[in-house]
Amino acid sequence: MVKLVLTGIWVCAITLASVYFSVYLATAPAPAITDSKQSALELVKGETITVPVISDGAVTGYFLGRISFMMNKDMLKGVTLPLTEMTTDQLFSLLVGNKMIDLTRIKSFDPKAFREQIKKGMNERLGGEYVADVMLEQLDYLSKQEIKQNAAGETKKLGAPIKIVEGAPAEGAPAPAAN
Fold it and tell me: What is the domain partition of the chain in residue ranges?
């Protein structure tokens, strides 16, 4: 009987201590914000845009893209920018005007250079170092033929995927099997 009472007291003490510490930690003040690079940046989400691909005077397909930016908080204070429109214009310039992505040589696409071009162009247009980093959330290509097939309700056999960017295997990773 004594063991049962001592066990009950022990369980109550442990329960009270855990409740006390959980409430204490939940109501503790937030840690001080450090002056790190991340605390000085703000995420500005981009909208999905569609950029037509024009070849030989006709639309051959569409790029679907969504690009977000890490921008300097200090420079954004009190500034209202037409960021969506500027992003759309910059992407049109890169994808249509400069022909940065060539569909005949898709393996030559360099995402890092693409991000740098967008960052450089946006900062030039804004007149300062507003954009710290560019994040490619989506960059897809749909051919005009695929769009017509989808609209007609036709099913399409999936072919082998085309690797646009291929990374180096990690150290210690098994080598890919030969076909």
Answer: 38-152
| CB atoms inside a 10 Å sphere around CB 90 | 20
At residue 179, the pLDDT reads: 47
Q: Which two tokens stand for residue 117?
A: 């071009």
Torsion of CA 42, 48, 54, 59, to 10 degrees: 180
On whether the CB atoms of residues 106 and 164 are closer than 8 A, the answer is yes
3-state secondary structure of 84: helix
| Closest by Cα among 70, 83, 91 to 139 | 91
pLDDT one-digit tens code per residue, 6-19: 999 999 999 999 99
Write the single-letter amino acid at 139. Answer: L
Query: What does the DSSP 8-state code read for residue 158?
Result: -
CB-based contact 145:53 (threshold 8 Å): no
CA–CA distance, 98 with 163 (Å, rounded to integer): 23
The C-alpha atoms of residue 130 and residue 73 are separated, in whole angstroms, by 8
End-to-end CA distance of the chain: 73
Nearest to 165 by CA among 95, 120, 114, 116: 114
pLDDT in tens, 124-164: 887 888 888 888 888 887 888 887 887 777 776 655 555 55
Given 3.30.479, 3.90.1530, 3.30.70, 2.60.120, which CATH number is that of 38-152?
A: 3.30.479
